[in-house]
Amino acid sequence: MTKQENHIKHKVTIIIPCRNEEKFIGMVLDNVIAQDYPKELLEIFVVDGESEDRTKEIIQDYADKYPFIKYLPNPERVVPFALNKAIKMATGSVIVRMDAHAVYPEDYVSELVKGLEKYDCDNTGGAWITKPANDSVKAIAIAEATSHPFGIGNAYYRLDIKNPRQVDTVPFGCYKRKVFDRIGLFDEELVRNQDDEFNARLIKNGGSIFLLPHVKILYFARETFNKMAKMFYQYGLYKPLVNLKIGTPATLRQFVPPLFVLYSAISILAGIFHHPFFYAFFTGIIFYFLASIMVSIGIALNNKNSVALFFHLIWTFPVIHFSYGFGYLSGIFRFLLFQRPIHHSKIEINR
Q1: CA 285 → CA 78, 265, 280, distances in Å?
Q2: Is residue 102 helix, strand or coil?
Q3: Among 348, 100, 313, which residue's Cα sits nearest to residue 225?
């Protein structure tokens, strides 16, 4: 048997954290069932954070039909607890994290596991293609904005690269089980960004991560501005804590939204006492919205609802940036300056 075929011998544990995902959980479980990886070498833990809709009922229906699917409760309700609980119970030599908001190709597991062997790395992942949650113009605008470099940055897994390459992070992840024995589990303080911290810790300890761009993940964005804003606020909130834990910022682009929010706030406050600062504020806002307008025009021209999409987009970008920026500044005060403890029960998780 060649090295490329060795991956078929690995038992794979798939972990799917979820909460209130009745619209999507059946779809992702159908994806798992359709995988071309041998079913006798699969175990699937669906870890539910006390859903208040039909998510638990749907999971249990699948578990009754398929013995390799197992339901696990997650009373802490947040992702790192779900991941760690399942990892401790896992019997696979490979751990694959999957999200309930995504659609995966039939060879998703087999290609990622094959990549672990081919590149002799510790983690592999696919390219992320963002799709709208529904057919509304608002949902389309959110999907477009959260997949555009102006909205979300330039992470490699969001870009149209052609060849596999070593990267600093991938969406979800396919890990060798021994990685967790070597460097520990996911950080349970991190409601968001726990994968960023783990991957940074992995690289810091000599590990490697490969992006396989031929493996396409269709990810469904949030359908409302409210859900999107909460999600990006939480991403920003926990980013300073991630930087503190790994000892360095992972990227420079993460500072742009909080610096812009800080610039705006200082300009407004200073303008109360010295009016020329108001000009600085309006200058920055004008340039920002001009950039937002130009990007929105470029995106909208390729859509049949171009006018409606344009007007949604020019507000979607500020929601992303200001939510993340406010979250980031809140994280600095909360975790770095005041060192307040984290109470997961008080945090509304937007899944």
Answers
A1: 36, 11, 9
A2: strand
A3: 313
Nearest C-alpha neighbor of 246 from the set 181, 196, 191, 210: 196
Which residue reads 């995902």 in tokens?
21
Nearest-CA neighbor of 207 among 231, 234, 173? 173
**Tens-digit pLDDT profile for residues 324-341:** 999 999 999 888 776 665
Per the CB < 8 A criterion, the answer to whether 215 and 112 are in contact is yes
> Under a CB-based contact definition with an 8 Å cutoff, are residues 160 and 248 in contact?
no
CB 240 within 8 A of CB 233: no
| Rounded Cα–Cα distance for residues 299 and 109 (Å) | 33
**Options 3.90.550.10, 3.40.50.410, 3.90.420.10, 3.40.1130.10; which CATH number does 1-101 get?**
3.90.550.10
> How far is residue 156 CA from its own chain's centroid?
13
What tens digit of pLDDT does each residue of 63-119 get?
999 999 999 999 999 999 999 999 999 999 999 999 988 899 999 999 999 999 999
Residue 28 neighbours by CB distance under 10 Å? 22
**Residue 161 token pair:** 């690269």
pTM, two decimals, is 0.82
Considering the chain, tell me which residue range(s) the CATH 3.90.550.10 domain(s) occupy.
1-101
Closest by CA to 327, choosing from 228, 203, 221, is: 228
129 close to 164: Cβ distance less than 8 angstroms: no
Contact assessment for residue 167 and residue 210, using Cβ atoms and an 8 Å cutoff: yes
